[in-house]
Amino acid sequence: MLTEVHVPEDVPAAVGLIAAGATILGGGTSLMPRLNDYGSPPTELVSLRRTGLAGIHADGSAVTIGATTTLAQLEHDARIKFLNPVVRSIASVPVRNLATVAGNLFVPQPYGDLAVALVALDARATVAAQPSGGSQPSGGGQPGPSRQVSVELLAGTAALVTAVTFELPRPGAFKYLKAARRRFNSASLVTVAATITEEGGVVSAARVALGGVSDRIVRATAVEAALLGRPLTTETVEDAARAGLEQIEPRDDAYGSAWYRRRVFPVHLRRALLGR
Amino acid sequence: MKIVNLKVNGVGKAFISKPETTLLLALREQLGLMGAKRGCAQGACGSCTVLLDGQPVVSCLVPAVTVDGADVATVEGLAHGEELSPVQQAFLDGFATQCGFCTPGMIMSAEALLDRNPHPTRDEVAEAISGNVCRCTGYEPIISAILDAAERRSL
Q1: Does the beta carbon of A45 lie under 8 angstroms from any beta carbon of chain B?
Q2: Which of A17, A87, A97 to mutate to test the interface with B (most CBs of B within 10 A)?
């Protein structure tokens, strides 16, 4: 049950409450379903809704998205149009109007498709520092400077993310495909997100992230290694998929079996990277 | 316990909220607006959909104290006296409602879609109601009714 819901007006106040033991509430789309069962232990929440962390800033090629920016706000922003298919592959409209960008970094697989895309974009999260005294009640400790962390390293932490930053990919470099049971509003069977750079007819840089195929987002380094230095052809991608199969550990869930996910991963890697 | 102020269907309301009071529970149990339904309480069925500051949200996932001062629109606020909104009338005329449990959420999702996009395609309608589960009508009459409502609104 909920014992208190704090609604602080700024980040330092939120940081203090988190340090004192409150759980972070972003959009609530992942946390509130668990609390609505009335069977949860006493829980104190700190809502980030009024902390002023929403907003999208594009400065040249650098994009910074505030933590509490909703997925719906991303969906409708023309400056980051390349993320529109990513956002529209996630949940439904009434959920996207609540769900936040930072919240997506912490949801368990097979959800968190935006986080998969952000890993492929090599995004960095700005994390607010804890007050002195660490996880103990703060006793008035002052927050230190914030720090930047790769979004890959956030899973399982209780960090207060204030923003996410990444460089706009070159036109056509970002690839994304999500296989799901239904066209709209379904969790991932296999999600592929990648940024691929080609120079001189071969892949010169590759960053590939996978969702739905493990209990965490997979940075598919084996796939990347198999792509580098080779032309982006069917044969290359099939070799990369074989390498990727060694790295994924899919699980059975209500959406699909581990067997099925392994079967369709090579198909969807090919479709994501080659468009066919 | 905190006092929460909302503008609900254009009228200022105030109520005392416990920490676990969701926007849905506040609407139903404290403000007597029974249109939005408690279905799954997981944000998955959409039967609790209302407009929060103009945007459709699953109100079962929103602690009421976090939206103090917000504008909320529910299905009860759509009709003008005996005159239904075009979406409501299209649902009625097109037999797009059967047991009626999903209907208020469906209609609020449709209203939000048509506010944002007055001439949606069939596919855009399907996406807009993808978070609203109906176990009776099979969706086709609902999609047709929303497309019909789009035409009625443009007349």
Answers
A1: yes
A2: A97
Q: What pLDDT is attached to residue A81?
A: 96
Q: Do B19 and A7 touch (CB under 8 A)?
A: no
pTM of the model: 0.95
Where do we find the tokens 């009626």? B100
DSSP 3-state assignment of A29?
coil
Interface size, chain A vs chain B, as Cβ–Cβ contacts under 8 Å:
93
Among A21, A22, A20, CA closest to A6:
A22
Cβ(A55)–Cβ(A69) below 8 Å: yes
* Amino acid B3: pLDDT: 97
A94 and B109 within 8 Å at the Cβ level: the answer is yes
Q: Chain B contacts of A182, Cβ < 8 Å?
A: 130
pLDDT at A137 (0 to 100): 39
Q: A149-180 b/e with 16+ CB inside 10 Å = b?
A: eebbebbeeebbbbbbbbebbeeebbbbbbbb
3-state secondary structure of A94: helix
When pLDDT is cut at 50, 70 and 90, the band that residue A142 belongs to is low
Q: Do B20 and A2 touch (CB under 8 A)?
A: yes
